Structures are given as structure tokens and as C-alpha cells.
Amino acid sequence: MMEIMEGSHAVANAVRMCRPQVIAAYPITPQTHIVEALAEMVADCRLDAEYITVESEFSALSACLGASAAGSRVYSATTSQGLALMFEVCFNTAGLRLPVVMSIVNRALGAPLSIWNDQQDSIALRDSGWLQFYAEDNQEATDLHYVAYRVAEDRRVLLPAFVCFDGYILSHTYEPVEMLTEEQVDRYLPKYRPVHRLDSADPISIGLFASPDYYTEFRYQIDQAVKGSMQVIREAGRQFGEMFGRDYASPVEEYRMDDADCAIVAMGSICGTAKDAIDEMRKEGRKAGLLRIRTFRPFPAEEVRKALSGVSSVAVLDKNISLGSKGAVALEVRDALYGSGVPVLDYIIALGGRDVAKKDIKSVVDMAAAGKGDLFYGLREEVLR
Amino acid sequence: MTGEQCSLFESGHRACGGCAAALAARTILDAAGRDTIVVSATGCMEVFSTPYPETAWNVPWIHSLFENNSAVASGISAALKKQGRKEKVIAIGGDGASFDIGMLCLSGAFERGHDFVYICYDNEAYMNTGIQRSGATPYDASTTTSPAGKCSTGNPRPKKDLPAILAAHGAPYVATATVAYLPDLKKKIRKALDTEGPCYVQVHAPCCTGWGFESEKTIAIARLAVETGLFVSYEMENGQVTRVKKVVRKPVEEYLKEQRRFRHLFRPQRNDAEIAKIQAIADRNAEKFAIDIVLKK
Amino acid sequence: MALGLGCSSRPGTSRANRTGSWRTFRPVFLHDKCTKCGLCVSVCPEGCVVADSEGIPEPDYDYCKGCGLCAEECPAGAIEMQKEEK
Ligand SMILES: Cc1ncc(C[n+]2csc(CCOP(=O)(O)OP(=O)(O)O)c2C)c(N)n1
Ligand code: SF4
Ligand code: SF4
Ligand code: SF4
Ligand SMILES: [Mg+2]
Fold first, then answer.
1. Which of A88, A253, B108, C77 is the most exposed place for a label (fewest CB within 10 A)?
2. Does the structure's ipTM exceed the value 0.95?
3. Looking at residue B154, what is its pLDDT?
4. A95 touches chain B (CB under 8 A)
5. Is C14 domain-assigned?
6. pLDDT at B6
7. Which domain holds residue C54?
């Protein structure tokens, strides 16, 4: 059924239907509406979960880690400073192979303090072993939670996952969303059956320390699991499409890429604006296309290479910056295209909530055509003086 | 004496010979039994008991980080509740994990009232990283970050009163114990496990390597700490001190002179002023907890 | 073979590590002096002193580190530390 809902509420509803047994979260703008909605559901007995009102994000994820290790499906949500506070626990959760699912309502990281959107927060955790999905709109933001649980808990994967969607732009926006029913979710998402769990009937030890003789092999195994999850994502995404009509089999979406000359590469809600801009450019006879990355971890290098190999320029819109280097998406895309000769230009854009309009997308395409890139887009004049 | 032939804390661990933390681990599990899930913080006990692929634990055990064992335990406790499981949850950490870096998680978990027991094995410094001071290091102890020197007499601050802090959270049961009295330690662990809600047991655990004494003296030193009044063994129920171990007090010097970490108080010359300050700490403890047995002639 | 998921391991595997090799002194239990009080069993940090059905304690030298704690604490003076012959 189509319903017009705020993004946060749509996500909270999706989470409810995933039936987490333990929720631990700490409020932070713009994630608050999700955790408030979940608290209300628990208070009204619409969701049968233990809701732990932790004293910090650090404890939120630590509690989720513990509950997951004890064999429960768990959920948390955070953003920005909260995610930064979880940094150490993030690496640990992945290393312990616990399939925690967490919503990241993307927001800029201070300093300077900003509550507005970009993707620096989750990007900063790209090396942590968490799967990372980025939603373009609220429909996808809800759907990806079902997919994320299914993939994360799959025995071939057993890794935690971020479902990322842009703060305010999606979280606080009312859009029509088709919500699944509980029965549908139950059919799609099997009960969590842990492989390794804390249980006195089988008292294993989890999280031993590794000497140099073993550490590399542990990291190798985690890397293999992250890479191997791509196949599981394809399966889970395809099945979602077969059951509910919205197909997430591919880690990327190609928009008017068939005969594209200049390809924009981006993640998240900015892709909506990019698509509109492309439509207008097409009318003007300019062959622009979009490659939207939905799964950033594992990185779909193969799909990226395939989609971009024929174009004459690639313009990456990076809502993050690896200070002193480039945007993270551009670095990955360049790596994927290594040796192909296709030029990849990077545009650091829409940081800290700066609005992006169709005209900005067009001007990025113009710059790319002129070979001008690897820059912060639309800087205030005064900093250039 | 047939008892449990198969200990829940297995031999083969890599603690220094005579390690009180190892003795504490074994004793705690003896008291707790099989249906216990243990969450360890990073530190000596975690490291000496679990070098992959070997673990000394025969109960379900997890290590996540240095400072989050009580938060992990909160999550486990919540999960068990939801699953209708009956196992007990114990979080164990050193004094560094408990007094210092893990305070936030510990305070949060106690305030929320999870049903679990937190045990701090207190060896009064960060031993695993090479004997640096912690909030539990006693006044004047020389550590690698509070070294005694020409213008220092060692650690400048007295020990933080963590039991009182946790009692102030409304913990139903808070106790201190020591490896000097193992049956008492077991009793307190049992009591903590049998009390609903967050309970705290702080176990004084002398470290021969960090404090500087011979390995066979571990228990003797622990006993002296009690007998001098520098460590008080007591129980608090709902914020009230309900039981205290009384002693015929010895001068603190008898405890101090046995340990390298206090050697600067005696050599090259005796520092009477500093020894008197430590005696005053013991005297205050004695008064506060009324530990003195008054001998009648 | 894959390593333990989440750096996990089967319980009690530390027994593979025979810490008896660390020993420089060896506790020798003098059974004629022993009162079977059981203290040595409870104070051993290795948990390697086991009493037989008669209550007579014996250390497992595979694991005994020779720390001397049992000898120090034995109220009957029934444990003697002797230099280990290597
Ligand atoms: C966040 C973090 N900071 C620092 C460390 C380094 N570290 C590991 S163990 C430890 C000290 C542990 O001290 P304590 O809790 O008293 O246990 P002990 O080793 O004395 O038994 C430190 C500082 C760490 N592992 N993690
Ligand atoms: S350093 Fe101290 S606490 Fe650590 S293993 Fe050795 S004796 Fe035990
Ligand atoms: S402590 Fe001494 S007396 Fe007691 S059982 Fe052991 S050897 Fe015998
Ligand atoms: S010497 Fe130490 S390790 Fe050996 S049996 Fe005695 S207490 Fe145990
Ligand atoms: Mg310590």
C-alpha cells in the first residue's frame, strides 16, 4: 500500500517489521525521529523488543554487539558525531563477524559543527568491514533495511551493515512509500540463526587476540567475506524484486548510460537531482548519463568498469573528502577504471548541507567536458582570493 | 576434596606465576558455575587467557574492547531476557577498564539497572601495557607514569572510591573482596549473582610483576593490605555498609616495605612524612568502616 | 582451514600450552606432613593442584609454574620448593 510518510517513520516501520529483539540507540539529529518512533512502538507493544536507552553511541553499538553475540537480531541508528564515537566498536563488530544492522542518517562531521547532510560520516568508516548501502529515496531507504538484514545474517556473510540515507533530505521529507506487510517481510527475511553465539550449552570463546602468526589471516577472511557478500547481495536483491517488484540485484543503477558521453557517478539523494538534470540536458542534445552506486561496500568495481568503459569523461560527485587527497568515491572509481584511459574527475560537492540544483549538475558536466575537475565545487569567492 | 576436577578456568593460560588475577578468575568461575557468560575487557586477564587459538575459558566468553565490557554485558543481558534464557552475565575488567576508561559504560549500565555482575580485579595499575598508573593506583605508588624521582614521591593522588560511586547509582549489592580470603570472595560473587540488578564486586589482586614482590607472596601481600587497613573488605546493600572485615591493625609500613613500588619511601633514606600520610589513609579507612578489633587485656 | 569465526575458539584449549616448562622451582608435596586441608588446591592460580579421593593433593607438573604460592600458604609446611633440575 502506498502511504505518504516521513522518511524516518517509513524506516522505523520497516525496522519494526524486521523484528529486532534488541534495539540500542542514542539520540542525535537528524536520526531522532527513527529512534523515537521505535520507542513508541515498543511502549505500545507494537514491537516486541528490548529497547536499551544507552548513555552514548559508543555503548549503543557495544550493547548491540553483545546482544548480537548472544544470538539476537539487533538494530541501531546514528549519524555523524555519533558514528564517529562508535568508530572503535565498528571495526570490532565486523571483526567479530556480528550481523548488526544500523541506519546511518548521513550528516557532516565537525569541525565545524554542522547538523546538515553530506556523506563524510559513513565514508569515514569505509575500511571497517561493514557493508554500506546508499539509498536514493525513501522507498529504497526502507527496502534496503530488509535486504541488509538478509545479507548481513546470511551464513556466507555474517557482517554488519549500514543502510545510509541522507539526513533531512530524505529523513525529514514526506514521500509516498510502499510499505510491505508483516507477512511479506516474514516471507522475505528468515529468522536469525546465529552461527557462533554465547551459549552455556556450547561455551565458545569469541574475540581472542591474534599474534602476528594469525592476524593477517583473520583480516583476509573478513575481506573475503565482504567481497563474497556481493553475490549474496545480488541474490537477495533479485529475490526482493521477484517478490515485491523493486529489483535490487545490481549494486549500481545506470540511468541513460546506453549512449552517454559524460557519466556522472554519485550516491544517495543527489542522484534524483542528477537524473532531472540529465533529462533536461538530453533535451538539449547533450549525452549525459548517471551511474548511481547503491552498494559502496563491497565496492562494485566490475559493474563500474563495465558501465563506464565507453564514456569520454566521468564526473564523480563526492559528498565527502579524504582531506589531503580526494573524494572517496572518485578514488574507487579511478581504481576501477585503471588502465582504461577514461578520465575521472572529482567534484567535492554538497558538503554540510549545501544545496545542489540541476544547474550545478549541468555545470559539473560542462567542467568535465572541458577537462576541469578535481576541485571543490562552488566555493565562496572569498576563500579563493 | 574430590570437588570439580575440571575447572571452568583451564590451566595453560599465560599469566605470570603467582598471578592474583588468574587466581581470581578461577575462583570467580568456581563460584559462578557453568551457566555464566563472561565479558572480559582488554587487559592482563584477557590477554593471558586467550591467545588465539587457545582459550582458558570453559564458559561462554567474549572480549570486545578495553572500555565497553559493561555495555556489551547490557546487550547480552537484554538479549537473554528477550530469549527467555537464564544464564548469568558477568563483566570482568581490570582497574584501568573499570575505574578509568570504562566509567561511562559502567555508569550507564548501572543507572539502567541491567541484571548483571561487574567484577573489577584491581591490581592498581595498567599492568598489561607496562605498569602505568590508573585511578586505582594508591597514593605514592611508583609506576611507569608516576615514577618516584627527585621531586616526586610517586602517584600523587589517592585511590578513587569506585564502590561508593556505584553504590550511589542505586546498585543493590556492592562488595570489596580479596584473593587473601577466597571463601569470602566466592560468597560475595555468589551473593552478587543471586541479587537481581547490577551488582559490583571489586577484588584486590596483587600483581607480583607490577608491584615488585616474589610470586609466592601474592596472598601474603593481599592479607597485609587488609591487616594494615589500606584495603577494606566490606559489603554494601542498597547503599548501606552491612558487613566489614575487622582486623587487629598492623602499621602500614609492614605492607609498604614488602613492595618495590614503595621502595622510595625507605631508600635511600626513610621518608617518615610520606609514610605518615599513608598511615593517615589507613586510619581514615579504619574510622570510616570501624575495622579495628579492640583487644582486651 | 578457516580460522575461528570472529576470532573464536573451542573452550578450554589453553591446555595445549604446557606451562610446566616455565618452572625454575618445583613444589614437592610431603604427604606425611599434609593435613588434607585443601588450601593448596584453592590457592593455585593455575588450578593445577588436584586432591585424590583420599584428599591428598598432587600438582600437575605439566602446568605448575613453580610460583611457590602453595608452599608459602600451606599451614602444615608440607610443600617444599626445590630447585628444578633441567
Ligand atoms: C581504547 C584503548 N586505549 C588503550 C588501550 C591499551 N591498553 C590495553 S590494556 C590497558 C591497561 C589495562 O589495565 P587494567 O584494566 O588495569 O588491566 P590490567 O592489565 O592491569 O590487568 C591499556 C592501557 C586499549 N587497548 N584500548
Ligand atoms: S603482570 Fe600482574 S596481573 Fe598481569 S599477568 Fe603478571 S602478575 Fe598477573
Ligand atoms: S595446603 Fe598443605 S596441608 Fe593443606 S592440603 Fe595442601 S599440602 Fe596438605
Ligand atoms: S607452585 Fe604455584 S603453580 Fe605450582 S602447584 Fe604450587 S601454586 Fe600451583
Ligand atoms: Mg590493572
1. C77
2. yes
3. 98
4. no
5. no
6. 67
7. 35-83
CATH 3.40.50.150 fits A2-244, yes or no: no
CA B55 to chain centre: 22
CATH topology of domain B20-289: Rossmann fold (3.40.50)
Euclidean distance between CA atoms B195 and A140, whole angstroms = 47
pLDDT digits (tens, 9 = 90+) for B66-77: 999 999 999 999
**What SS3 state is found at B23?**
helix
- B281 phi-psi bin (left φ>0, alpha ψ -120 to 50, beta other): alpha
Domain covering A252-384 in this structure, CATH number: 3.40.50.920
> Is any ligand 3 atom within 6 A of the Cβ of residue C34?
yes
**Nearest residue of B to residue C53, measured between CA atoms:** B2
CB atoms B50 and C22 under 8 Å: no
- Ligand 3 mutation pick, C30, C33, C34, C54, max ligand atoms within 8 A of CB: C34
SS3 B7: coil
Which chain B residue is nearest to residue C13, measuring alpha carbons?
B54
Tell the burial category of A186 from Cβ atoms under 10 Å away from its Cβ (0-12, 13-18, 19+).
middle
> Residue B66 has which C-alpha cell?
578495553
Is C26 within 8 Å of C64 (Cβ atoms)? Answer: yes
Question: What does the alpha-carbon distance between residue B67 and residue A276 come to, in Å, rounded to a whole number?
Answer: 48
Pocket test for ligand 4, best of C65, C73, C80, C84 (most atoms within 8 A of CB): C65
- Long-range contacts (CB closer than 8 Å, 24 or more residues apart) made by A181-187: A181/A17, A182/A17, A184/A243, A184/A244, A185/A14, A185/A17, A185/A18, A185/A146, A187/A243
Using an 8 Å CB-CB cutoff, list chain C residues near A214: 3
Return d(Cα C4, Cα C15) in angstroms, integer: 18
Ligand 4 contacts (CB < 6 A) are C 27, 44, 46, 48-49, 59, 64-70
Asked whether the predicted pLDDT for residue B4 surpasses 50, the reply is no
Neighbours of B139 (CB within 10 A): 17
